[in-house]
Design goal:
Two copies of one chain form a homodimer.
Chain A: H1 6-13, H2 17-25, H3 32-45, H4 52-59, E1 64-69, H5 73-76, H6 80-95, E2 99-103, H7 116-119, E3 124-128, H8 135-143, E4 147-149, E5 159-163, H9 165-178, E6 183-188, E7 199-201, H10 209-221, E8 226-231, H11 237-248, E9 256-259, H12 262-274, E10 284-286, H13 292-297, E11 301-303, H14 306-318, E12 326-329, E13 332-334
Parallel strand pairs in A: 1-2, 1-3, 3-4, 4-5, 5-12, 6-8, 6-9, 9-10
Antiparallel strand pairs in A: 7-8, 11-13
Chain A binds a DNA duplex (30 and 30 nucleotides) through helix 2 and helix 4.
Chain lengths: ~350, ~350
DNA sequence: TCGTTTTTCTAGAACGATTTAGAAGAACGA
DNA sequence: TCGTTCTTCTAAATCGTTCTAGAAAAACGA
């Protein structure tokens, strides 16, 4: 059973290797009868189709697209937003019978080359919320692998599928401003705080492009407001809770909390619930993304078509007929019960 | 920049290709100075390390493990349970700097060989909740790819990491029996109902091994109870809601509903909420898996160490020092507010 | 019947690396 | 000084395909 190759089959049937190859890849290049005979013999010999690596090497197609996440892979799955993106991407991948290669983005050994991004056999790559400075992006560029990012990059020739982060956040900001909020805390993803101790950051410490832009949008829409940037850790439910707890238990409570992702906002919601605070009445809470759980929780948030975003990335990567290489997706402010007027001072 | 290979670099530096290869793979096989020189030249030429496919072909290692899901990939991500498994697996994969190849399990073209499972360049495979009859499993076996399943299979030589489904379900069944429940509806995953019309099934129509075993466990623990098996579609929140709606709006309400996954149970919870039914008082609700949301919702469920399950699978697949090839993980009944005594008839 | 096209199949060269076995020179111990 | 052992590097074979160009046979049109 081991060591059965195209050649073995070819010899057994009495034809050339090329013909066996064609039996699998170009059925119209040989007679039906012969193809049948070849496939049967292959089955008998326990040959299960052309070897993936060899085929990839010769044809230059790996049949897989890579997916790059920020942080640890394990983290990526905890946000339904990321998962939704993946689901959309998976849909298109399935359509083109291409596999999805999830690549751990470990920072070690980048130089040595023993890196997953370096080693991966992929035809293209989807870059999900990876800060533009990341060395992995250089490696991809170096390898000449076409990539699509979920952030609008700096380079004009980079493909992306994104939203107008500033404008989207500005809409939310206007909503809050109209409700009279002047004192807002923004919850962000940050590695520094991952230990469990919340930190307050300045805008340029944030790191992630999308987060920075969202904060800019908020500032733009509410220039008179006091905006504090707080992180309780990585982008996760628990970080949102931790960050919110810190804020809520301080002497200096804001009138509104904005999570830059829904998972963080929902974490904050939990912190409020424990303290008997009703969102929309005692304190306004808003999120970003509009994940399914946000609706159930009555969370005011900015909807972005995440699944469609994944699909669009997939199409740019896989569909040769897709010409548009930079796509701006629409967003929509979804007002729910968690936002309400600021209490009169 | 294109067409730069090992050979190009070798020629430029004035050494043999083998030496360049060693510079990347076996640093101790050549002098530090030469290695430095090679790496520098490579950088200058825009060579970004050995080609993945070629390396995979020659060395026989792909540097990736495949992950097989039931149904569509897109579906897989909607269940935090599946995501948790993936996260655990990803952790170990990361450790061994191996990538995760998510393979769409489309049923088409299996025979023709243009299947992802057929084509994928992988060293090993994790099989997540795939029914044992699936042709993809045969393909894997045929290709001689080591695999670990999350279900205890029929073959004694198959590796698996699983729970004692029967026993776990029986614990839940005993709990319900003690509370006096005699009329129970079980919500299961089923393709037939995917159109949106709930269906009632017999045990042998269920299809998934794990679900069947869980139902067996329930039956064992509550032999006197009436057990109806209902499906509202695939394993998802919405299916649980649909199934529960159908049951709740019928003339023949049970006293307890058991979702064979937490997502389905939470869907049912939503259906109850809409109808003003308090879980644990008006009707008992239980789930399976103990995903994070179950705790927040106060859902009685069976905890299984999903992340650890993923890690264990990863270790069996990747860690050569791991000898145990069949692992039974512990489960625990978690009683929360959603289960209560059956109303006196 | 003869040239031309179409169908069916093949030979042999890539694809880009790794591996094995071994050569050349340096270092070493006695 | 001589044989032995390291260290450092190389030549050539090989991994299992697919591709390009073209040959042989069959079908076709006039």
């Amino acid at each position: 059973m081991a060591g059965v190759t195209l050649k073995t089959v070819a010899k057994a049937v009495g034809v050339s290797p090329s013909t066996v190859s064609n039996a699998y890849n170009k059925p119209d290049q040989l007679s039906v009868a012969l193809r049948e005979r070849i496939l049967n013999t292959a089955r008998e010999l326990g040959y299960s189709g052309p070897d993936a690596s060899a085929r990839a090497l010769r044809s230059g197609k790996a049949g897989a697209v890579g997916v790059l996440f920020t942080d640890k892979l394990a983290y990526a799955f905890s946000d339904p937003y990321a998962v939704g993106f993946l689901a959309g991407l998976a849909e298109v991948a399935e359509e083109f019978s291409t596999s999805l290669l999830l690549m751990p983005l470990s920072s070690t050994d980048i130089a040595g080359g023993s890196n997953a991004v370096q080693q991966a056999a992929i035809d293209a790559a989807a870059i999900f919320c990876v800060p533009s400075g990341n060395p992995a992006l250089d490696i991809l560029a170096n390898r000449g692998i076409p990539a699509v990012s979920t952030d609008r990059g700096d380079h004009p020739d980079l493909s992306w599928v994104a939203i107008d982060e500033v404008e989207a956040a500005a809409q939310l900001g206007e909503h809050l401003a109209r409700l009279g909020h002047r004192d807002v805390v923004v919850l962000v993803d940050n590695a520094e705080a991952a230990g469990g101790n919340p930190v307050e950051l300045s805008v340029d410490q944030v790191g992630y492009t999308d987060c920075e832009l969202r904060i800019q949008g908020l500032q733009k829409a509410m220039p008179d407001a006091r905006l504090r940037i707080i992180s309780g850790g990585h982008n996760a439910f628990s970080s949102g809770r931790t960050g919110a707890e810190w804020v809520l238990d301080s002497q200096d409570r804001p009138t509104a909390i904005v999570g830059l992702s829904d998972v963080q906002a929902l974490g904050a919601l939990e912190a409020m619930r424990v303290r008997g605070l009703i969102p929309g009445r005692d304190l306004t809470l808003a999120g970003f993304d509009d994940i399914p759980a946000a609706e159930a929780a009555g969370l005011t948030t900015v909807h972005q078509p995440i699944r469609e975003k994944g699909r669009a990335v997939g199409r740019i990567l896989l569909d040769p007929t897709a010409t548009e290489r930079q796509l701006l997706m629409p967003t929509e402010l979804i007002v729910r019960a968690s936002s309400g007027p600021a209490p009169k001072a």
